[in-house]
Structures are given as structure tokens and as C-alpha cells.
Design a protein that fits this description.
The protein has 371 residues and is α/β, with parallel strands linked by helices. 31% of the residues lie in helices and 19% in strands. The strands form four sheets. Strands 3-2-1-4-5-6-18-19 form an eight-stranded mixed beta sheet, sandwiched between helices. It has a seven-stranded mixed beta sheet with strand order 11-10-9-12-13-15-14, with helices on both faces. It has a two-stranded antiparallel sheet with strand order 7-8. The longest helix has 20 residues. The radius of gyration is 22 Å and the shape is globular. The relative contact order is 0.15.
Amino acid sequence: MKTLFVCSERDARETRVSITPTDAQKLKNMGWSVNVESGAGANAGFADADYVANGATIVNADFAKQADIVVSVRKPSIEDVSKFKSGSFHISLLDPFNEKSLIKAFADAGVTAVSFELIPRITIAQKMDVLSSQSNLAGYCAVIEAVSKINKIAPMMMTPAGTISPLKFFIVGVGVAGLQAIATAKRLGARVEAFDTRPVVEEQVKSLGAKFVKIDIGQTGQTAQGYAKELTPEQIELQRKGMAKVCSQADVIITTAKLFGRKAPRIITGEMVAGMKAGSIIVDMAVESGGNVEGSKPDEIVITPNGVTIIGDTCLEGHVPATSSQMYSSNVCNFLGHFTKDGELQLDMQDAILKSAVVTKDGQITDKRFM
């Protein structure tokens, strides 16, 4: 039987846990000895006793030195990695393009590291796709956060005192997060418009009851994995001009345009923000990677001189930690279950999932992009 260790999260922003008590039982049934750092699930509402009731053992942080697999949500520190057992296996969101020193530390420590962001978007890996599962929740939370901060109600109401108009939402970027933001805003009764550089998503926008904003910016498209292709500076300027009028009429703008491993495109300029109504809300979901909105700041709420509130929350999914932990944990269990036979990890590096997601193995960095 191999040992698995569930770390407490060190990042002060983080409320999630990588394995829930229910999934601890599933992993035990696969043949794993599940060990959970004391208090690891507390912020998500899972007590140590819940883990014990599901067959896990409560341990302290030093257990990482003897674990065969170490699992967390956020990346560990270089110091933490130096304590991992040589030959062990690690899974977390490693941010490999921006953490090359950390990736080298994994290689130096002889740890096989999986960057969970690099799970490929192929059919067999859908149940392991942590970016999609967490982006889905972040899109939901972005709408809830905006509605909680604005000084109006979301739905239309017809009352004896008069008719209340619905909030006008503008969603920029119609990936997983954007689609969930549209759906959530519509459920709350808002009027929703959305824009994406990929014309192919227009049908999805309309299927959710929103209006697709058409802006002619020339030839665009998407990558093999379904992400929007990076725009040229000229296309970005055309996009901004086309969006300016929509922004000026919106009560809430939610921007979702992220480019994994690269700086987020600046879509909403200071001039566009200055043209918005006082009391309007902007949620910049890309703030951690540079931001789509001029003036947004990570983990801060900025109020502009003209009264627009810009929310720069870097962990929106952390607002619903029980649910986000449940989904992340399911992604981990599905990954481990796919490669576990008789309580042992069997790693075929020709497998499409492992070729994409494993960043260090046998003391080597597997992809020169991370060197």
C-alpha cells in the first residue's frame, strides 16, 4: 500500500482543500493510505474527524518527508519541495511558466511533478480538467460578487411604484467562466450581452438567452484546445473601440480573458472605465496575470474618480470552498484512479495526459519551456 499526503494550504487566500473526506474514502478503496495534515480541510468546512470517519489518518506537516504522493491545491514553496521524498509524486497548480525555479527544485529533489493546469482538453481527460471545473465556479462567483456590491437589484420588477429595469451585464470572453457568468446573471434576471473574439461561440451565447455583441476585428480563431488565439495590437484596438459603447451602458462588466502562461490582454482601458456610469461594477477575473482592466489590482477593490468599482479578486472560486474543493478533489481522484493499478501508480510517459501534464521526472525537467 502506498501513502498519500494531503497538505494544508499555505497561501493566505486559499480556502480549498485538495481532497475531501468522501474522496479520501475512495482513494483508500483504490489501495492508498490517505494521510491528511491536521486542519487541512477546516476552511472548506471539513473537520479532521470527517477524514478519520472516512478512513484517513491525521498527521502533521512533517509527513511530507515520507509520502509517496503529495497533493495540494496551490504550489508548494521551494523549501517545501526540498523536504519531499526522492522518487515521490506531486500534484498541484504549479504555474510552471512563471515558476521555473520551483520546477527546477522538483527536478533537483527527484520528484515527479504534475502541473494540473496542463491537463489536456481531450475527451478522456475531461473528468480531470481542473481549470474548467474551477473556472466554472469562478464565473458563478464573479456574478454573485458583482451583485452583492452594486446598489441595484438584478431582475426587472413591475411594482405599484413603477417598473424597475434589470441590470445590464456585459461579459467579455465566453470560455467556461464566461458561459457560467452569463448563465448565472440570466438566472438572476439580468439582461446580458457578451463578446468573444471567436465567432463560433455566438450560438452558445444565444442558447443561454444572452445577446452576442459583434465587432469586426478581422481574422480570429481558436487554438486546438479551444482557447481564443492571441490578438494583434491592431485587433485589440478595434475590439476596444467596438466595446466602448456597450461598456458605457453596462451596470456590470465581467472580463474573463486569460492566456495561460502569458500576460492577460488589456481589454478595458482607463478611458473606457471613465465613460461608465457611477455605481457600475467591473470584475477583472484575469487580475492575477496582469489584468484585463486598466486600474485593477490583485485582491483589492478600487473605486475610480467617476464612481466605478473595480474588483480584482484572485481566488473567486475560494468564495465557495466546499463546492470548489469537491470539484478539485474529484479531478484529483479521477487522475489518480486512471493511473492506479493495485494501489500502485503506473506511469506510461507515452500517455497523452502524462506527456502534457508531467513537468519533472527522474531528476529531469520534461519540457524545455519550463527550464
